[in-house]
Amino acid sequence: MLVKDRINAEAENLTASERKLAAAVLSDYPYAGLVSIQDLAAHAEVSAPSISRFVNKIGLTGYQEFQRALIAELKEGQRSPAEIHIKDRHVEGGYLGDFIARASAQMAVSSAAITEAQFARICALLMDPKREVYVLGGRVSDSIAFHLSFHLRQMRKGVYHLPANIETWPEYILRMKQDDVLFAVDFRRYQPSLQRLCEAAQARKARVVLMTDKWLSPIARNAAEVLPVPIESGTLWDTYTPALAVIEAIATKIAEDNFDQTRTRIKAWDAVRFTDEDRST
Questions:
Q1: What is the pLDDT of residue 30?
Q2: 144 with 244: CB under 8 angstroms?
């Protein structure tokens, strides 16, 4: 169990000082828990013995184990496919059926990891005409980001999918205004350049919305909203199926909630859209 899940599981049983400590740890998770016990006590304005009791309450034997668990989570977020691979993995029935069953199970988990209230807030941010929206993912996860940006562009103006070439990013950063939205997709192994982009966006007071996995990309430290989706498939490759399902749910809700505007935009889009028949030979 992740440390943050241990904390959330005990939330109702925490004292006032322990709730203050939990808030301090979760506000900069997992990094807040990687400092000395004295530094964490000073930051959370609690005593060192209170931290020891808190750690015991969430099922860990001491502060050292607490930190080892956090460090293990960070390492898990950096594992490569070669490290994830399980030799002689058991397959239930046929391979295709087994793989789809695993992906389906993770899709079910994703609906529990994201609250309806948070889902509604993010949809409202992305459809707000006063905000421009910038979208980008990592080396592989940019395909998920592109799926979102393509649908958003058909619904509203002011949506930009940043190119992979980081030399072009300053143009987009300088264009960002306060309360614009940068939607970033970053799964393990996390991309440092994407983190620096989000830091630059936050410096311009744009709102960062992050889609990531349960180990949390470092971008979470700069994000106004974090969408944690399960990606473990028990195979060589992590699965992005749950992430794609969440993206499609976002795009569909926005379109249906703003159908008149979406219909007008799609009609205008189709009127000037180029097809293969339009291309000269």
A1: 83
A2: yes
Q: Per DSSP, which regions of 107-220 are E strands?
A: 133-137, 159-161, 181-185, 207-212
Residue 181's SS3 state is: strand
pLDDT above 90: residue 279:
no
Q: What are phi and psi of 243, to 5 degrees?
A: -60, -45
Whether 242 shows a pLDDT value over 60: the answer reads yes
Lowest-pLDDT range of 72-81, 222-231, 240-249: 72-81
In angstroms, rounded to a whole number, what is the distance separating the alpha carbons of residues 105 and 91?
Answer: 15
Specify which residues 133 forms β-bridges with.
159, 181
Task: Report which secondary-structure segment, H or E, holds 211.
Answer: strand 207-212
Query: Could you tell me how far CA 42 lies from the centroid of its own chain?
Result: 30
Enumerate domains of the chain plus CATH numbers: 3-76 (1.10.10.10), 95-272 (3.40.50.10490)
Q: What mean pLDDT do residues 170-183 have?
A: 97
Sign of the CA dihedral running 123, 253, 188, 162: negative
